[in-house]
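Fill in residues.
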């Protein structure tokens, strides 16, 4: 189902985030493989070091580039394999929770055809890698819960920490070992076993804490950090965000309309089977509460568009989907089996149709001329030339497609003074699709000659 998209360059929904991630991969490969020095293209004449999430995923792809060369195909295959590991992780997590292989198969199948997951599974975003690590971390925790072998607990801590390192919101998954250990302390008090288990379960949380304490001060203006503490949206706007995510994003993108009935029935069967009496229920309930708190804290940042910020919901959602599907399948008589299998069979069809228009190179989510003429735009000037590009609201897409370093601007917002300063710092060329900017006589006075025009994109040599 993804095969036709493997050879395509980055396009479609959240292509800005994809180009940001892919640029980091390219810069590891081309400049410096130090994992502590991820670089962006919009860097002026500086080194471009730009630390956000810990770039383990980007670095691993760059390592593959060292072996196979710089090809977007390598990135897409790597992401697909990570996605398959996530699906297998969901299967194992469900098996550890319920010891019912058929339930786990239903859950893994449904998760695989979540339209949102299906779309991102071949796209370079670190949330994929973080989700995979977190799922396996949860599985190993519940494996330790069953077998009480310390190696499972330590491996769980390592993987949960990698998940949080690669994407900060996944640190909330540590609530499960924290809450379990807290309940044990309440029940049995502090003893040697509790101390060892606490060290094993929580020792590696120090890694993401250390990384984000080191880098977070440089995140100037990032809405994610302050969330609702720096909210500019009105109450009605926030309510609209919540409503949209509840009635549109959740059933259509996160679940799949075919899984919606299973999801709702999951709540019904939890109540009917009195599953709330199972101690594991309270661990998952703790995760559910903190995940909802995370959502409401970041509601203004998530808005209606940042669906990948909702990845931490995936394990909880598909635990319910799997539980509902399985118990509908075994419920009373064969007609429920038929209904279950029909819905299961519809999932890939609904998912495919929902994503049919994505990866559309004719409507890539930015100026299509950058994609159509990328080779000509990249080779028109030396690779090491510093450039100015715009318009580009993302500040990543334009520089990615011309494969250059330098400065970016958006909304025709670039003054003659800024242009002069950039020239003083080494800018030699300007790529632009801004007609308004080129009507500014002061801007024109800094342009030497037009070197190339491809569609709406013009390349000028600067004086």
């Amino acid at each position: 189902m993804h095969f036709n998209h493997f050879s395509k360059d980055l396009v479609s929904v959240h292509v800005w985030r994809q180009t940001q991630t892919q640029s980091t991969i390219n810069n590891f490969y081309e400049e410096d493989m130090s994992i502590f020095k991820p670089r962006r293209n919009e860097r002026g004449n500086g080194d471009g070091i730009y630390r956000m999430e810990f770039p383990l995923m980007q670095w691993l792809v760059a390592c593959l580039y060292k072996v196979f060369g710089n090809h977007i195909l390598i990135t897409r295959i790597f992401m697909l394999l990570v996605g398959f590991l996530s699906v297998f992780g969901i299967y194992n997590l469900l098996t550890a929770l319920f010891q019912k292989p058929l339930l786990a198969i239903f859950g893994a199948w449904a998760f695989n055809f979540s339209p949102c997951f299906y779309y991102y599974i071949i796209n370079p975003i670190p949330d994929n890698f973080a989700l995979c690590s977190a799922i396996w971390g949860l599985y190993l925790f519940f494996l330790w819960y069953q077998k009480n072998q310390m190696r499972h607990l330590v491996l769980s801590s390592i993987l949960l920490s990698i998940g949080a390192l690669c994407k900060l919101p996944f640190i909330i998954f540590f609530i499960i070992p924290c809450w379990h250990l807290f309940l044990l302390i309440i029940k049995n008090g502090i003893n040697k076993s509790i101390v060892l288990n606490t060290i094993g379960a929580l020792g590696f949380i120090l890694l993401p804490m250390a990384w984000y304490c080191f880098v977070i001060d440089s995140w100037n203006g990032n809405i994610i950090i302050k969330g609702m503490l720096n909210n500019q949206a009105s109450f009605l706007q926030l309510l609209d965000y919540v409503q949209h995510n509840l009635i549109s994003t959740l059933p259509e993108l996160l679940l799949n309309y075919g899984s919606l009935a299973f999801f709702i029935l999951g709540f019904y069967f939890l109540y009917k089977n009195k599953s709330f009496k199972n101690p594991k229920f309270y661990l998952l309930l703790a995760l559910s509460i903190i995940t909802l708190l995370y959502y409401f804290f970041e509601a203004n940042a998530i808005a209606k568009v940042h669906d990948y910020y909702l990845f931490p919901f995936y394990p909880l959602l598909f635990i319910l989907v799997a539980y509902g599907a399985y118990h509908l399948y075994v419920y009373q008589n064969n007609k429920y089996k038929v209904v279950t299998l029909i819905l299961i069979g519809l999932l890939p069809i609904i998912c495919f149709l929902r994503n049919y228009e994505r990866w559309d190179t004719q409507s890539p989510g930015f100026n299509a001329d950058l994609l159509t003429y990328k080779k000509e735009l990249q080779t028109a000037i030396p690779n090491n030339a510093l450039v100015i590009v715009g318009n580009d609201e993302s500040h990543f897409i334009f520089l990615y497609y011309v494969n250059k370093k330098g400065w970016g601007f958006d909304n025709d917002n670039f003054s003659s003074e800024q242009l002069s300063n950039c020239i003083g710092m080494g800018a030699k060329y300007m790529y632009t699709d801004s007609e308004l900017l080129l009507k500014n006589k002061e801007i024109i006075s800094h342009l030497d000659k037009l070197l190339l025009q491809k569609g709406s994109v013009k390349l000028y040599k600067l004086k």
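Residues 329 and 341 are 8 Å apart (CA to CA).
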